[in-house]
Amino acid sequence: MFDELTIILLIFALLLSWFAVWKKYLTVSGAVLANIIGLIILFFNGTSFFLIIIIAFFIANVATRYKIKEKIEIKFVTRKKAIRSWQNVLANGLPILIFSILEGTMHASLFTIGYVTANASFLCDTVSTEIGITSKEEPFLITNFKKTLKGRSGAITTLGTLAGTLSATLLAIISYLIIQEQLNRIILLVIIVATSSTLANLIDSLLGATIQAIYYCKYCATFSEEEKHTCGNLCEKVSGFKYINNHVVNFLANLTGALISVVIYTTFV
Ligand SMILES: [Zn+2]
User: Fold this and answer.
1) What is the mean pLDDT of each run of 10 residues along the chain (269 residues)?
2) Distance of CA 224 from the midpoint of ligand 1 (Å)
3) Which domain holds residue 140?
4) Is 158 within the bounds of a domain?
5) How many angstroms is it from 95 CA to the middle of ligand 1?
6) Does any domain span residue 184?
7) Looking at the 3D structure of the chain, how many domains does it have?
């Protein structure tokens, strides 16, 4: 039923997701959902698309692991609880799944670029957050360019943004090599994916600074994306709407990024 490559990829995906659980990057339910999403992609699109999401997930984990001790020290993450939940996997996975199913049923290259960009947008956001938080530079708020505290939604750093765009570009190159796209088309496609993912990342920060619920922990004197801070104390909401959390913003931003790439592709390519 399965060829050798499929079996190797399935085993690798399983090991990778359970390594993430062991390292507390992902909850058990998050890993189960990630595996289900992977299987759906394998079913609809085969090994090449499956390999793309595995690589995106792998690079995201490397970025999460980067300077993890420092992130624990500043209470950006905690050792007590896994960093990403099933809600996080769903928010990032849904835009990817939408384009996976569209491509799998209609086989059009505009859905392929949507799929690659949905993956690249997820990676761009994760890498810019995970690298940006370790930056020595003070972050600034995307809406007014004023300096703000680390970890606040909508706060961006030059290092984080550049790292995010670089990771999206890298994933786009790898993806089109895996898909075996014609070499003379790859540069243009990579530019579209990298630009759309960077826009998705900026939209994510913009929504994060405006409509997303932001909390403040008075015990740690820092901002939090959740009502319960990593220190265990309850925070006070300082701005945004209660039901628009980081997951909703991630979903909206990544879906928009993928749609932007589809529009650019159908207009210019
Ligand atoms: Zn706290």
Assistant:
1) 88 94 95 97 96 97 94 87 94 98 95 98 97 94 93 93 98 97 95 98 97 94 90 93 96 98 96
2) 8
3) 4-209+246-268
4) yes
5) 32
6) yes
7) 1
